[in-house]
Amino acid sequence: MSVETLQQTAGSATCLDWDLANEYPDSSLPGEGDAEFSRRVGQLTGGRVRIRPQCDVRPGLGSRRLFDAVSAGRLVLADSFAGALGDVHPLFQLSSLPFMTAGGADARRLFELARPHYDTLLHDLGQKLLYASPWPPTGLWTKAAIGRVQGLQGLRVRTYDATSAQVFIRLGADARAMAFTDSLPLLASGGLDAVLSSGDGGAGAKLWQHLPYFTPIDYAAPLSLVTINLAAWNALDAPMRLAMEDAAAQTMQSQWRRMQTRVEENTLRLRDAGATIVQPGAELRAAFAAAAATAIADWTGRAGSAGHAILAQYRRQP
Asked: What DSSP state is assigned to residue 90?
């Protein structure tokens, strides 16, 4: 259903059928959030809005293209990995800055500081933010164990944004930022040696069959953002908007609660699958920290006064 058709029907008793597109599997934390949000919207609107989660979109339709489709009105809803939107505006990379957040509590605090800026940016892009889904801390999936910095030399690694690619390039890797869906065919063909990802839920199942070693470097606890086309939102009547906002708020609360136990659940799942968890040594952690400091300084320069202010406030708060 086009946005124009939605504008004509949203104020009537006609039921709206919307797809919610996501490049990640339905068993990932954002994918589970999509299912909960869809269920809550159906309940709170009395069935007037039916949302169909569409996870695992085909290669070539990563988060950036889904996000652009919402702005253009080709999609009404999308669940987009925020780090992939860095060339839309650097602030979208905030949650995936290296070694900035130690876990869910830090990630949520950083998001709350940034949310007013996201709201303004998205409005200018023809979208509205409904809620954010956190990801468990990111690690490195590899074909062989990486114990020292030398193991990164020439490593063909998929990263999820330009900043993470920059960090790995500084450490000698052949790093390329790409959508998760686009990395899977390369993994299957042997074109990648490693993937930077939390491997949450079904994403892990797609990785450990090719990359049996996981190093929990705790690179970041990034976010995915669920947004709606602004014209479609504006076409809704007030009760439907309130219902959607209530569903979004309840879903986001559930997502942060799920985050509290997710690392342990994923660790057990990895071990049951036969994957090997390799704890990074002090040398490797120090090398990542040094490369990250330069990347964060570069990002702060690109993000301008807003990015500088958010980080300064985040660092001041306990």
From this structure: G
Task: Name which CATH class applies to 139-218+274-316.
Answer: alpha beta
In this chain, the answer to whether the domains covering 3-137+220-266 and 139-218+274-316 adopt an identical fold is yes
Question: CATH homologous superfamily for 3-137+220-266?
Answer: Bacterial extracellular solute-binding protein, family 7 (3.40.190.170)
Dihedrals phi, psi of 224, to nearest 5 degrees:
-115, 145
Q: What is the pLDDT of residue 308?
A: 93
**CA–CA dist 272, 157 (Å, integer):** 25
Q: Give the count of beta carbons closer than 10 Å to the beta carbon of residue 191.
A: 12
Whose CA is closest to 228, among 45, 37, 40? 37
Domain extents for the chain?
3-137+220-266, 139-218+274-316
pLDDT tens for each residue of 77-111: 999 999 999 999 999 999 999 999 878 899 999 99
Of 183, 155, 160, the closest CA to residue 171 belongs to 155
Alpha helices in 161-237 (DSSP H): 162-170, 180-189, 202-208, 230-235
